[in-house]
Design a protein that fits this description.
The protein contains 9 helices and 2 strands; from the N terminus they run H-H-H-H-H-H-E-E-H-H-H. The protein is mainly α. It folds into 3 domains: about 1-30, no CATH class; about 50-90, no CATH class; about 100-220, Cytochrome Bc1 Complex, Chain D, domain 2 (Orthogonal Bundle), CATH 1.10.760.10. Bound molecules: heme C.
């Protein structure tokens, strides 16, 4: 410690000129030693290494993702196991047959043939109003709408021999469910509405296939009423 250039003892040494200059040169040497390995402070800023920037952004992104997935809507009840699950309502809403939407879509998709009043056109397009094909078992009408139907058919005592394309194939499950629910309850028809999940199920079961013949449909789903 006593040798240290900064030590106060040293400066209080009796100062011959020689001793003084020796301690000065010592000082300079030690300082240059100390200064060698240090960078001089510079003005401005240096860019963070790009890797650090990426890691930081990556972390920010992950954090955002984590929050959107797990924030539970920032609900105060998120950690309360006994709280009513209000959060569940944020998910996709359960399907409810919407007859107004169904009517609108019916007018666009079906009415050109079956007519807005569901009575069809004698000799060309069979009626849906009061038709036993429409009512009762829901799979029958779902299949007809999805794949189409062609061949001789008898509806309410009249014979037709037409060709209905696979209109439903181009519609969403919910859209078709709304149309069919409407058709099954309009013009004096009174059958249960149809759910989108049922349409999806039938769509999957029949796959992509050609039109049904009335005979094939009747084998699978005989009419409940004449
Ligand atoms: C391009 C004209 C056309 C369109 C559009 C059309 N159909 Fe048909 N539909 C027919 C014809 C023709 C038949 C009879 C087929 C036959 O002769 O085998 C038929 C038969 C039916 C039947 C069975 C017979 C009956 O009258 O109950 C149902 C049910 C039916 N269609 C529902 C629909 C629904 C629902 C839509 C709309 C999603 C629709 N159709 C769109 C022409 C059409």
């Amino acid at each position: 410690m006593t040798d240290h250039p900064h030590s106060p003892n040293q400066s209080r040494r009796p100062s011959s000129g020689d001793a003084h200059s020796a301690s000065d040169s010592q000082l300079v040497e030690v300082h240059s030693h100390l200064a060698r390995d240090k960078e001089e402070p510079r003005e401005g800023f240096s860019l963070l290494p790009i890797v650090v920037v990426f890691v930081f952004c990556g972390f920010g992104f992950w954090a955002g993702l984590y929050l959107t997935r797990n924030a539970a809507g920032f609900s105060s009840s998120a950690f309360d196991l006994n709280a009513p699950r209000e959060v569940a309502n944020d998910g996709p809403k359960a399907f409810e047959p919407d007859l107004a939407k169904g009517e609108k879509l019916y007018l666009q998709q079906c009415a050109s043939c079956h007519q807005a009043n569901g009575l069809g056109v004698p000799g060309a397009f069979p009626p849906l109003a009061g038709s036993p094909w429409v009512q009762g078992n829901e799979e029958r009408i779902i299949k007809i709408a999805l794949a189409g139907i062609a061949g001789e058919i008898e509806v309410k005592g009249n014979k037709y021999n037409g060709n209905m394309p696979n209109i439903g194939a181009g519609l969403k499950d919910a859209q078709l469910a709304n149309i069919i629910s409407y058709v099954r309850s309009a013009w004096g028809n009174h059958s249960d509405p149809v759910m989108d999940t049922k349409v999806a199920e039938v769509r999957k079961a029949i796959g992509s296939r050609g039109q049904y013949s009335p005979k094939e449909i009747l084998e699978q789903h005989p009419l409940e009423t004449k």
